[in-house]
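Case study 2.
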Amino acid sequence: MNSNNQPIGIFDSGIGGTSIWSAIHQLLPNEKTIYLADSKNAPYGQKSKKEIVALSMKNTDFLLEMDCKLIVVACNTATTNAIQELRAKYNVPFIGIEPAIKPAVTHSKTQIIGILATQGTLNSELFNKTTEKYQDTKIIEQVGHGLVQLIENGEINSPEMTKLLHSYLEPMIKANIDYLVLGCSHYPYLIPQIKKILPEHIHIIDSGEAVAKQTQHILREKVGFASLEEKQTIFYTNTNPKVLSEILEYKYTVLQKEF
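Prediction:
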């Protein structure tokens, strides 16, 4: 495979997909990346499939204008509702992110797992097809109403966040789950909070590492790795860049742009 110095494009309904970007950047530090935070339209989880597809295509158009060689849909809701339409329309590889149910089911000893996700993900056809494969495991689904908006507002450690997490997680603890699957790319930023609530024996799973490995595989097999060590990363947001800059600890360039 020849080298390819075009950037990797990554989009999410806001800042949450930076958890996916971080995993990709750690595994592939020499790749240029462009991250798109559509925070103005967050959260996607409360929108219709038609709206989610339209927003995902708009984000894709933006990244393709930036000459991206592949696109990571770093949003569970966008993946489960729109990735088939994206792959049908555009001649570029897409990598999606789905709740990591398989490893949770495989390793669960109680055969009871919990999933915290958006309404859009839990209602999607793709998610329901996935869960149908695991009839022998009880999957407790919980919509994380309000969590994305609090994260987007920079209120990760607020009393309101703590109250919501207790209300969502305590019924799962009582139901004897031993794995909690985080079904939204925003939610890894809540892991420190979640660990304070969950007993130590309950494992938390997110999808970042799996997405990074799949990105590496697609670069190796289809697209090509970068040969220049520019390591350039640009972040775009269509709202105030302050929260995104804070999440990134002011280490990277964040540009505000309408799209």
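The mean pLDDT is 94.
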